[in-house]
Write a structure and sequence with these properties.
Chain lengths: 129, 388
């Protein structure tokens, strides 16, 4: 469950495609056509080779939990922050949702789901696969 | 060109306050500047270089040199979060070596306790942050960011909460002798494990305090340092680095200390085994453990064993650390702990730490800082200093 009010991401010309896709229920990831590396968070110039030949690709939307933590104090509702390593090989910061937070584990298989934000586009989160 | 031997730490002052409800941030900067100048035996008119970071109010160094009434010919406002002040010491030494200034003043101050800050609230680092849209919606705060590092370290290396707790236990043994420390009670491993879980796997006692206060340092060229009536603390080496998410290719269990430490040791021409005392930034217990590994005091993954059983306690442990009680027990002014790391290292090298925690024959010390968040992106800086 995500009772937490999720702050809206600040959309910029550089990241607009990502959040437009999220509104359609699609997870995009950037790939560089010069060095063939995926990266996240998305940039216009590849953070590895600095090429401007980066393009958006549809991510499979599945991955494994690299690490996580459930914040329990000082917040109205505990929530689980995590890095999920996508099938494409890069890790993204996210939340693990729609599950018993006490059972979240590193290495767990997860799949993307999109959650509404407070006045902005939805954002990708992950739930147990 | 090296900074080795080109500059001395001649003044150090830690503000005694831990809650400054009736003072302004600028006022605290001025009070620590005055304290450090008096400690060095210098006056405001001697200062010709000024260094501050993001805690300085207004337009940073411009607001502060005006407020403090300084006339300087060198300014630096490098901001790498809590480790900024270690970098300032290194940059001051560089400026001194190049003849750009002779006496550098570095100040830090803040009132997060009076202003109600907490490690479970998001921190705003400024507009147009490229990473923010991909982090802010998920509720990254200070505690859960570091907690993710601890969780991964436990997964990769079998590190335990008991081992992390020993870092807090050692800090509390030191803090009992510091009359200014916020938390002076000696605690046990059980106390740490019994304290409330804040962000799995970090308990409340794995977290540093939130305090008001500040500190200042004076760095001077050798000719000036040698005319002052203070023990001589000479800078031998320094390193700095930044490390983040690497485009999504995460290595969260290694910090930028692996790079800044290697650079500092190379410049100083010493090795970890030579170091008698360390100040290690302790925003959380896990922060200490990761940095000790990355600096080479033990192998990667063996930090848990290294810190256990009181091995960081002065007098009995193999590597005394944070003898003022550190951020875990003493203070964490402006949510930035780098300044106080340098100050306690200077005290140790001068032989002016509390007698109960003073390291015998403390000729070589290291101060290590991280700033920002280990779980997302952080700066690292290492200083190696000797008693001359």
């Amino acid at each position: 469950m995500t009772d937490r009010k999720i702050p809206a991401p600040s959309v910029s010309p550089e990241n607009k495609a990502f959040f437009d896709a999220a509104a359609q229920g699609k997870l995009l990831i950037k790939k560089c056509n010069s060095c063939n590396e995926y990266h996240h968070y998305p940039r216009s110039l590849c953070p590895f080779c600095f090429s401007d030949k980066t393009e958006w690709r549809d991510a499979k939307g599945t991955g494994t939990i690299y690490t996580y933590s459930v914040l329990r104090r000082g917040v109205p509702v505990p929530y689980c922050i995590a890095y999920v390593t996508l099938e494409e090989g890069v890790s993204m910061l996210t939340n693990i949702v729609d599950c018993d937070l006490d059972k979240v584990r590193i290495g767990q298989k997860v799949t993307v789901t999109f959650k509404p934000t407070d006045g902005g586009p939805p954002v990708p989160m992950f739930k147990p696969a | 060109m090296s900074i080795k031997g080109k500059a001395y730490l001649v003044g150090a002052f830690e503000h005694p306050t831990r809650k400054a409800e009736n003072k302004s941030v600028a006022q605290l900067h001025a009070e620590v500047a005055k304290g450090a100048l008096e400690d060095a035996g210098l006056t405001k008119q001697d200062v010709d270089g000024y260094f501050c970071a993001g805690d300085a109010p207004g337009l940073g160094p411009l607001s502060m040199v005006d407020y403090l009434g300084l006339k300087v010919r060198h300014l630096d406002s490098t901001d790498t979060g809590g480790t900024s002040y270690l970098i300032h010491v290194a940059h001051a030494a560089q400026a001194i070596a190049l003849g750009k200034c002779n006496v550098a003043l570095i100040t830090l101050a803040g009132r997060p306790r009076s202003e109600g800050h907490s490690g479970t609230q998001p921190r705003v680092w400024g507009a147009n942050m490229p990473d923010a849209p991909f982090e802010a919606p998920y509720g990254v705060v200070t505690t859960n960011s570091y907690a993710m590092v601890a969780m991964r370290h436990m997964h990769e290396f079998g590190t335990t909460s008991e081992q992390l707790a020993w870092i807090k236990v050692a800090a509390s043994h030191h803090a009992q002798h510091n009359p200014n420390a916020m938390l002076r009670e000696v605690v046990t491993v059980k106390d740490v494990l019994d304290s409330p879980m804040v962000a799995d796997p970090l308990h409340r006692m794995d977290c540093c305090v939130v305090s008001d206060g500040g500190g200042a340092l004076i760095v001077a060229k050798p000719e000036i340092a040698k005319k002052l009536k203070r023990p001589l603390v000479r800078l031998l080496g320094a390193g700095e680095s930044g490390k983040g998410q690497a485009g999504g290719k995460l290595t969260l269990t290694t910090s930028g200390a692996a790079w800044s430490g290697a650079a500092a040791f190379a410049e100083a021409g010493v090795k970890p085994a030579d170091v008698k005392y360390v100040s290690i930034y302790d925003s959380f217990t896990i922060t200490v453990l990761v940095q000790l590994e990355d600096l080479g005091f033990c192998k990667k993954g063996e930090g848990g064993k290294f810190v256990a059983d009181g091995n960081l306690i002065s007098g009995s442990g193999r590597l005394p650390f944070n003898t003022d009680g550190g951020g875990l027990c003493n203070n964490h002014p402006a949510n930035r702990g780098g300044m106080t790391k340098v100050i306690e290292a200077v005290r140790q090298l001068r032989g002016e730490a509390h007698p109960k925690v003073q390291v015998k024959n403390c000729g070589l010390a290291l101060a290590q800082g991280t700033g920002g968040q280990l779980g997302t992106r952080h700066g690292s800086a290492t200083l190696i200093m000797e008693r001359e």
